[in-house]
Write a structure and sequence with these properties.
The chain is of the alpha/beta class and 196 residues long. It is 29% helix and 21% strand. The radius of gyration is 16 Å and the shape is globular.
Amino acid sequence: MEGHNDSPDFQSDIENCLTVLKTGGLILYPTDTIWGLGCDATNPTAVKKIFALKQRAETKNLIVLMADERDVLKYTSQPDLRVFDFLRTVHKPTTVIYDGPIGLADNLTGADNTIAIRLTEDPFCRHLIRRFRKPIVSTSANISSHPAPAFFKQVDDQIRNGVDMIVQHRQNDLSPREPSAIVKWNRDGSVTVIRS
């Protein structure tokens, strides 16, 4: 297995997250980038709770984390397979905006019928998503317009108090982290960089 899967925190955190996600609750968890707020990406009621906690307009897109390429194929219509070759060449976590989401909460998708998806390499996130068998939302754990927290200690009390479960794993990790790059994959196979 990858990374810290054998630590007691890791396993109990996974089990507790699964319980919360299955009941439409919110989790505060470490991702491959910064600390994030998460929920079941197929549950519109859970997604609504994230918008409310962040005080963010529901017109703003949220990122969805997936563990495997086949997840992208399942939750988007007609993805261009060249995107996976592109992702193998990037050196930082990269979120891709795809056309035609399928089976995800309606309030996650943009007015232009797009969805922002990141294939995560993080061992905790991958393990959680594979066990949950559904994608999870990943949005920065901050009130809208406030700075995004790179470390657990920077997460606002209002956010901590607004979730159903706080992951213990990596709370003391102070490795430098930053939000993902965001790109739009165009129909002709070209890439538009939205955030580098």
